[in-house]
Amino acid sequence: MSKNIQKLTLHPDRLFSSDDKVIEVARKLYEKVKDLPIISPHGHTDPSWFADNNNFENAADLLIRPDHYVFRMLYSQGISLESLGIPQHGEKGDLAGSRQVDPQSIWQIFADNYHLFAGTPSGYWLDATFSNVFGFTDKLCNENATEYYNEINKQLATPEFKPHALMDRFNIELIATTEGALDQLPHHRKLKDSAFAKRVITSFRPDDVVDASREDFKQNVAKLAELTGEDTSDWHGYLAAIRQRRAYFKEHGRATATDHGHPTALTANLNEQQCQALLDKALAGTATETEQELFRGQLLTELAGMSIEDGLVMQIHPGAHRNHNQGLFERYGRDKGADIPSQTEYVNALKPLLAKYGNDPRLDIILFTLDETTYSRELAPLAGHYPSLKLGPAWWFHDSPAGMLRFRQQTTETAGFYNTVGFNDDTRAFLSIPARHDVARRVDCRYLAELVTNHQITLGEAHTLAYELTYGLVKQAYKL
Amino acid sequence: MSKNIQKLTLHPDRLFSSDDKVIEVARKLYEKVKDLPIISPHGHTDPSWFADNNNFENAADLLIRPDHYVFRMLYSQGISLESLGIPQHGEKGDLAGSRQVDPQSIWQIFADNYHLFAGTPSGYWLDATFSNVFGFTDKLCNENATEYYNEINKQLATPEFKPHALMDRFNIELIATTEGALDQLPHHRKLKDSAFAKRVITSFRPDDVVDASREDFKQNVAKLAELTGEDTSDWHGYLAAIRQRRAYFKEHGRATATDHGHPTALTANLNEQQCQALLDKALAGTATETEQELFRGQLLTELAGMSIEDGLVMQIHPGAHRNHNQGLFERYGRDKGADIPSQTEYVNALKPLLAKYGNDPRLDIILFTLDETTYSRELAPLAGHYPSLKLGPAWWFHDSPAGMLRFRQQTTETAGFYNTVGFNDDTRAFLSIPARHDVARRVDCRYLAELVTNHQITLGEAHTLAYELTYGLVKQAYKL
Amino acid sequence: MSKNIQKLTLHPDRLFSSDDKVIEVARKLYEKVKDLPIISPHGHTDPSWFADNNNFENAADLLIRPDHYVFRMLYSQGISLESLGIPQHGEKGDLAGSRQVDPQSIWQIFADNYHLFAGTPSGYWLDATFSNVFGFTDKLCNENATEYYNEINKQLATPEFKPHALMDRFNIELIATTEGALDQLPHHRKLKDSAFAKRVITSFRPDDVVDASREDFKQNVAKLAELTGEDTSDWHGYLAAIRQRRAYFKEHGRATATDHGHPTALTANLNEQQCQALLDKALAGTATETEQELFRGQLLTELAGMSIEDGLVMQIHPGAHRNHNQGLFERYGRDKGADIPSQTEYVNALKPLLAKYGNDPRLDIILFTLDETTYSRELAPLAGHYPSLKLGPAWWFHDSPAGMLRFRQQTTETAGFYNTVGFNDDTRAFLSIPARHDVARRVDCRYLAELVTNHQITLGEAHTLAYELTYGLVKQAYKL
């Protein structure tokens, strides 16, 4: 049986292409950036990890159940979410509420199907984590699943695997979490006077109070009123309340950025009367889909104005069709791997915002996309012109070796390198963070090496650029 | 003169890239899959060939006149369809009806313009066919056209070139043809008790009875009533009639799949009353384009429901703007090389069907596209989530070396390999089938070899995957 | 300090990829085409340069201020247009009207920020121009800015840098400029009896008299009436006036082509009454945006009809959202680097025109795009079918090494090489013309070399094709 077990090795030249000339240059570039500290300016780790510094529980809870990249693939091949212990709606929302399923049996299913991840970034991140973080030397498979499970759990229980220790081991200089507008930031406040205060910051994500299509919108806006003492049924009061929360996030969470996960990139520039009317309808629950969209669009413009005032960098992540699988959504709720990208338009959508604020030197907007067709057609030309626009890295489904390469190949010639902002891991999978940043560094070095060997840039320029793409640009773009 | 004649040689490493490290791995992978039997689960060969086992007639009739890939290119360069013997509307529809043009003069025009095919898949398939099937060692050109023509005709007349002999020579384990819903499958029935019964099957393509935009829709539905004894003017009777035909295709044509060539991927989920109203209008010829579209969309959902009942795998081929060239259509009719892809949307379009049936473990849908932008944005995310969805291979204009490579590069990272279904040749050009499958095997081996040399998968994984992509996945996906 | 100065060298194998086998073949192909004369059939150089043959003024005026590729990048990084001497609206439109800013200070800003162009085609063209045209051996940087500036100005003042001398030095066999429909072509007429008459021709660009969304449309049409003596308020008179201007451009400007820069590729085929009604509204200033669009679309069809009559080749350049930056447009006017591509549809848009004229052997239309998604989906299939359609080269933002490669990779398999038309530089940056054509030749040779080393075409075919892509096809397509 054990002849089926394959060795797990991470080749030192992995992702550098197969071309020896490219590899040689990529190696030189990578050598200089591989040990630079990790800056993670956008992601979804749980701030309580850093505030409480408790050990993680077990392999399945840490690596499978919260990772929709992983369970979406298993689900696509006919493995039920029940068997993976994914809690259903009505069950307690947190994972701990759904302990009917033995974590070890979840792990076994995962191991039995590990071949599904061949050639995917998840497979790559997992292998790198197993090798680099836990020291495994055999690839995970059905035969060694138990061994893997026990070994991971054993290590997770040690002091070396507490979050603070891992922050140091992973060389994470800074990590930003993301919290909703109503969050009181207890974990970030707890960190306030600790050595980790500077290293763990939040980002302000107000989708819950600006997206009137949410079931809980009205409640959220009511809560916003409570928290701020503003009359949020009044357009001015509503904006003032949001302003207060931004200030709160800056003060108590050390936020330097906001984040906006809208279905589209639409922006609007309406007059006060129109805004009040939309707010009224949104709160009354009578807004049509188009009006909800317009309301979100107006808010993007308002939030850009606030960014000019308070200096928070604005991240726009449009284009996900959330919860596409209706049956699954009804049974399991949000974030169950059923978010599907859809075609996204930027040129007309952003025009109202840009017409109002696009030339203001105080404004910094970082644009993301799930629609790769916009790289060369819309995003690079926009970022290559407007001083307020920069391009975020390849996002989500495109946060992958080939995806990152396409990002550079399709944006660099028009936007250059200096209108981009380095890498985001955008993850809740804490243990995979080093692997993810390592992929980005390797792919960038490979891309630069190709330009060098094709005689498009010099090796000297490539060294400077490798540093900027890894460390320089992200600190500058996120004002860190 | 003869110094212009170039040698025709097929390099053993063709399509493996120029990189020696990649070539070396690709060779190893290819060595193990090159002789696996051909499974051709979707195509348009003529079932009478297999039922009657007669010799083919001549080179022009076999290789040029029925191949719209070939004559579209000639036409684009100003060569008239008349001169290629393409029958006009009103002439007998079958090729034999239009013998005004000497086949040899058609062949000469083709040979004179053979340089137009440099770098195209047609050129590649033709060269491979000339070399491997007929044994030519010089490239076709104006000077050797006659020699070629006579030699091909001579060989075509031999017993070794009868369809059954070629099935064996080509190592075709199974080939599926495609018939309309009203077809009585005489050729498949004739094969019933022969050794070829298992090797030649049909697919059920009901476009003629579900597409109300067709001139012959009303007649077709009337014929459907006749064949089944159902009242096809009643929504339930209409569906029951289609159900009967599916059963007929399973029984008499050994069908395991259906096929749907719709202009878009739209699906719908209407109530009975709405369905009856649409059917009424469709039959009365009063349905608007939007209603015709909605009707087709509703049918896709109904047909998915039937697939759950009877187990037929559903293939959806959307996105061709048929008969774009109006003048040509009026003079020559359908399928004259003037079908043009158009932008295709899947995420919203498929939602009604998926909301109803997408999580049913009994449903298998294979999605195709002519719009490559959907690979990474829509199709890979959908197939990487829904258990009912798989991705068909690069289709039609994209069934080409670079097209296939883009398919893998843009789908693998999100959907993996196991949500794909191997290769389809989708052709009526019988002699080119080995060449087409060979291209797919070579390109897949090359892609896998790149992953191996880039250290993203191991050689062992690559061997397993090469087998799956060539032989394993297609048998599983099409239930063969 | 001077240790920061990098050597400027142009590697002989640049842009040939890093693969030695590819490089070897690319070198052989390039060797045979590198010295072929330059044919520049579409561009925006100033015809007065060739008519008057005066020396250019200074480095900033020649290389920075008129080049929106250059100043858009600087602007995107927060450098104000004022500091670059870009004239504001109301100031005299020509560059000379805005001499508040010392050209040398503009040059210094440019040099200080030259690193922004790393990896961009502008960077590549500039380096090649500095090296090949001016003989610099160090890369431009903040330290040698003055030296560069003075040296360039010194050389610009010599007889060897007069336009005619440069035409010879650059081996430009023919260059086409582009003039609006109302232009009296004084410069082209001046050249009439000179040796340069055959080498400098115009193209007819009637956007100013067919685009009713322009502020000056009504005036332009009035001027059209004056020039031609036609009643341009009458549909027939209006068309007759345009016909006259085309004849004028043929006679006095030796035009062989027209050019159409429309927001979309829409065409229409309306009846006379509808046309007259649209013209009435357009002239009255009451046409809606949709009507203006329809009017432009109708004109494309009319202009195609005129091309059939007079033989002028039609170029369609759709898809730019002009003057996207509203604030900039208000202050600085048109063409300030704020044109952004937008999604462009061809299949439905061109159908009316193609239905009317698409099969006419006398019609030649060259299609361009800023939307790369249309290469494989729409444009290659259209050009691979319609005898009247050919594909223009990678345009504007995509006129770059990676952009050109994508063009070939995504069009060749469906359209072949013979439905393309060679290279256009499309530039007003006269000094960069050799560098731009050299990039195209290198990238084409590289692409062909990849096909050769991948055993898809023979070396003999590649040599033929390299010649065609460089010199043969452009002369044929533009009837030169």
Automatic annotation (TrEMBL), chains A, B, C:
InterPro entries the UniProt entry points to: Metal_Hydrolase (IPR032466), Uronate_isomerase (IPR003766)
Pfam families with a match to the protein in the record: UxaC
Catalysis: reaction(s): D-glucuronate = D-fructuronate; aldehydo-D-galacturonate = keto-D-tagaturonate
Keywords: Isomerase
Entry keyword annotation includes Isomerase: yes
Gene3D superfamilies associated with the record: Metal-dependent hydrolases (3.20.20.140), uronate isomerase, domain 2, chain A (1.10.2020.10)
Top-level taxon: Bacteria
Pathway membership: Carbohydrate metabolism; pentose and glucuronate interconversion
Keyword Isomerase found: yes
Enzyme class, UniProt record, top EC level: isomerase
Classification via SUPFAM superfamilies: Metallo-dependent hydrolases
EC number: 5.3.1.12
Family stated for the protein in its record: Belongs to the metallo-dependent hydrolases superfamily. Uronate isomerase family.
Protein name according to UniProt: Uronate isomerase
Gene: uxaC
